[in-house]
Every structure is written in structure tokens, then in C-alpha cells.
Design a protein that fits this description.
Layout: H1 7-38, H2 42-70, E1 74-78, E2 89-93, H3 99-108, E3 115-116, E4 119-120, H4 129-135, E5 140-141, H5 146-151, H6 158-166, E6 176-180, H7 188-194, H8 207-216, E7 222-229, H9 237-241, E8 247-256, H10 270-295
Parallel strand pairs: 1-8, 2-6, 2-7, 3-6, 4-5
Antiparallel strand pairs: 7-8
Helix pairs in contact: 1-2, 1-4, 6-8
Length: about 300
């Protein structure tokens, strides 16, 4: 353990470890991606995807190793009981810092299927990382605007059907779909501009998970509602790397997803959309009160 060293030295050691860990595993991941791209045989591609996920999980284990080596963080994690790699999960969380990514990967690695995000189809063309996402079988979705549907009514529901087809591969392979409902990290400025009704959160955007449940409702029956708490205040990534974050609390609440919210058309079914949004707002209000309790904030 090197946490006795001064913060600048810890930051330097951790930064070097991050660079070496990322470079090593990413080079291997790109090899798996190229192998998958060049041989369009389904069975081969499936094995390449498994290899890519194993490499990504090894990268996360490497990150956990440098955290253990350089940090003295007190990790207070609850709610991991009963989780398994053999189930499908929808994972949602509050979003305060880039540190959240390290936290979620560290807490869930090898306890649930590898975390994946639904991505816009255009992002597959992002240099380097688009290929990595594709190799890891991140689902890419194609969405049509209301204006496009108005001009071409035959497009109605086609985006959902396309996504369902892309998710066929997940029917036999469990997956964890991750979504930050706020859509961005909270800052005082964003909170004020939104006039958010929550003390610690931005307004949630229900469309992402509504779309996920519309495409994968047959498989995804359980939500993991994650609340990340930084009792010392929200850190930036550099503070975390320097070993200055002394306590991180992660509360995982396992929630069943009501059957009436699965396999619905969120984009085009207005009554369903309003009901679903109300459910998400209730979840967010509960999360805000939980943050009040954990941070010792007086009731409004």
C-alpha cells in the first residue's frame, strides 16, 4: 500500500498505472475487435465478443488493483447480495463526477454481467473507441425524430423494431444495461438552470430506459437502482487519483420492473409515456431523500 505517500506522488504513481493498464488491455481488445471484424461467422464473432469482454473485465481488475495500491478509501457498499452473472439487469445511477465510472465498474465487476450502454448508431464511427464498443457488443440504436416520422409514417416503430433485432443476441447471453438518467453530471449551474425539484439531483430523463425496456422487456425484469454518495463532497477525477477521496458509499437497491412497463412503445404511446415518467420521478424523489439522509441534510 502506497497511501502513506504525499498526494502528488500518489497521483503520479496512479496515473502511470492507469496509462500502462489501459494501453496493455486496449491493444489486446483491438486485436479481438479486428478478428471479429474480419471473420463474419456468427459463432466466431460470439467467441471474439466473449474474449473482448474478458479483456475489458481484466482492465477493470487492473484499475481496482491500482486503487488498492494507492488509495485508502473506505468503500461502504451495500445491496450486492443475491446478484449474479446469470441474470439480465437494468442499472441506473445518479451522476456527479467522472469518478462514478470507476466506482460502478469497481463495485459490479464480475458480480453482474459486464456493464453496457445503449449508444446512438452514429457513434459506431467514432475513431478507435467505436470499434471497441462494437467488439464488446454494445447495442447501437437508430432513432427517428417526430419530424421524420411525420414525413414518413411508415417509420413509426421501426427504430424500436431495429433495436429489438439488435438485442436478439442478448436473449441467450445475460447483459447489464447501464443508464445515467440525468444524462449528464450534476453541477450547481445545471441544477439552477433546470430549476430541479430535487436537492441533490438533476431531473431524470426516462426516455433512455423506456426505450431499453421496450426493446428488451422480455429479458430485463430487474432494475439495480444505484445511489453513489461522496460524504466529503463531489470529487473530480484528479482528486480521486491523488487518493484524496476518503469515503465512498454505494447503495444498490434491487427493484422489480413492473410487467406493464416492459415491451411498450415509449416514443409513440403518450399515455404510457406519462405513466412511466411519473414512476421514474417517484424513484428519483426517493433517491433524493436517501441522499439527504446519507449526507445529513436537514429536511426541507
Amino acid at each position: 500500500m502506497l497511501n502513506f505517500l504525499p498526494a502528488p506522488i500518489i497521483g503520479a504513481v496512479a496515473s502511470i498505472a492507469i496509462f500502462i493498464n489501459t494501453l496493455f488491455w486496449c491493444l489486446l481488445l483491438y486485436l479481438a475487435a479486428v478478428a471479429k471484424l474480419l471473420v463474419p461467422i456468427p459463432a466466431w464473432r460470439k467467441q471474439c465478443t466473449k474474449a473482448a469482454i474478458w479483456l475489458a473485465e481484466a482492465w477493470i481488475r487492473g484499475n481496482s488493483a491500482w486503487m488498492w495500491l494507492t488509495q485508502r478509501t473506505d468503500w461502504r457498499v451495500s445491496g450486492l447480495e443475491g446478484l449474479t452473472n446469470e441474470a439480465w439487469y437494468l442499472v441506473v445511477s445518479n451522476h456527479q463526477s467522472w469518478v462514478d465510472i470507476f466506482v460502478l465498474q469497481h463495485v459490479f465487476n464480475k458480480k453482474i454481467p459486464f456493464l453496457k450502454f445503449f449508444l446512438k448508431q452514429e457513434l459506431i464511427w467514432v475513431p478507435v473507441i467505436g470499434l471497441a464498443w462494437w467488439a464488446l457488443d454494445f447495442p447501437f440504436m437508430k432513432r427517428y425524430s417526430r419530424e421524420q416520422i411525420a414525413r414518413n409514417p411508415e417509420l413509426r416503430g421501426k427504430d424500436l423494431e431495429t433495436t429489438r433485432k439488435m438485442c436478439e443476441r442478448f436473449k441467450t447471453t445475460p447483459v447489464s444495461v447501464m443508464n445515467f438518467l440525468e444524462g449528464t453530471r450534476i453541477t450547481p449551474g445545471k441544477h439552477q438552470r433546470q430549476q430541479s425539484p430535487y436537492r441533490h439531483l438533476l431531473k431524470p430523463k426516462a426516455g433512455g430506459i423506456g426505450f431499453v425496456l421496450g426493446a428488451m422487456g422480455e429479458q430485463v425484469h430487474t432494475m439495480l437502482d444505484v445511489t453513489i454518495v461522496y460524504p466529503q463532497g463531489i470529487p473530480d477525477a484528479w482528486a480521486f487519483i491523488r487518493g484524496e477521496v476518503k469515503v465512498i458509499e454505494v447503495i444498490v437497491q434491487k427493484r422489480p420492473i413492473p410487467p406493464e412497463f416492459r415491451n411498450q412503445d415509449y416514443q409513440n404511446d403518450e399515455p404510457f409515456r406519462e405513466t412511466f415518467q411519473a414512476w421514474v420521478r417517484d424513484l428519483w424523489a426517493e433517491k433524493d431523500h436517501l441522499l439527504d439522509e446519507r449526507l445529513g441534510v436537514a429536511e426541507r
